[in-house]
């Protein structure tokens, strides 16, 4: 029960402060209509447990929340394969659970998945073809789009899904060292653009051209 309460605290720190605000009567007059939709940016998941006294080296907001998080099952096995960024584990079931949580907690609002994707590590010495054959990203999108499809089957009102990102770009503090795009940008040769295998997969998937383009929803 303590671990469940800790997980609930973590979700409230991530989602609740957006979706559970308290309003005065004056505020309510300005906000008569129901929320239009929820835009969900989702990349990864962790297992959360209760920790009344987190270790000093823990990130400060975990200390405030009195939680610990792990990326391993109790058996020691990782909950998902890691992408390029240290924080990004590939955990498709996590997005389904998150969407279903929103459905139950907030009376099934309209949801758009506004960001979802994974990154590769940039290597200026590597040939372009190495980046174009991004099979890990293809499998990422198959898994996550499939999990969203399962959430819709569960009853979620998901209206749209946006992959992050169409192009490789400047990624926050990591700059150009991480590549999230489904289209490769050649920074050394006039910013020329080359569709990756994931872009071709998306094209086939959206056009329903091949059986392989369908997400795995089992």
From TrEMBL:
SUPFAM superfamilies: (Trans)glycosidases (SSF51445). This is 4-hydroxy-7-methoxy-3-oxo-3,4-dihydro-2H-1,4-benzoxazin-2-yl glucosidebeta-D-glucosidase. Pfam families: Glyco_hydro_1 (PF00232). One of its GO terms (biological process) is carbohydrate metabolic process. InterPro entries: GH, Glyco_hydro_1. Belongs to the glycosyl hydrolase 1 family. GO terms for molecular function: beta-glucosidase activity. It comes from Triticum turgidum subsp. durum (Durum wheat).
């Amino acid at each position: 029960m303590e671990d469940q309460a800790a997980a609930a605290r973590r979700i409230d720190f991530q989602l609740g402060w957006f979706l559970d605000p308290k309003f005065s009567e004056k505020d309510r007059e300005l906000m008569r209509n129901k929320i239009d939709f929820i835009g969900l940016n989702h990349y990864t998941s962790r297992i959360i447990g209760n920790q009344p006294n987190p270790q000093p080296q823990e990130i400060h907001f975990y200390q405030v929340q009195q939680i610990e998080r792990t990326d391993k099952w109790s058996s020691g096995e990782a909950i998902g394969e890691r992408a390029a960024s240290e924080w990004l584990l590939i955990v498709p079931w996590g997005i389904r659970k998150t969407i279903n949580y929103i459905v139950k907690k907030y009376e099934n609002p309209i949801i758009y998945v506004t960001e979802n994707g994974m990154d590769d590590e940039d290597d200026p010495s590597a040939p372009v073809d190495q980046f174009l054959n991004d099979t890990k990203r293809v499998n990422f999108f198959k898994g996550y789009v499939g999990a969203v499809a399962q959430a819709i089957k569960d009853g979620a009102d998901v209206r749209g899904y946006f992959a992050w990102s169409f192009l490789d770009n400047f990624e926050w503090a990591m700059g150009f060292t991480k590549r999230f795009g489904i289209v490769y940008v050649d920074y050394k040769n006039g910013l020329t653009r080359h569709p990756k295998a994931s872009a071709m997969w998306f094209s086939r998937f959206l056009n329903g051209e091949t059986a392989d383009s369908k997400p795995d929803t089992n």
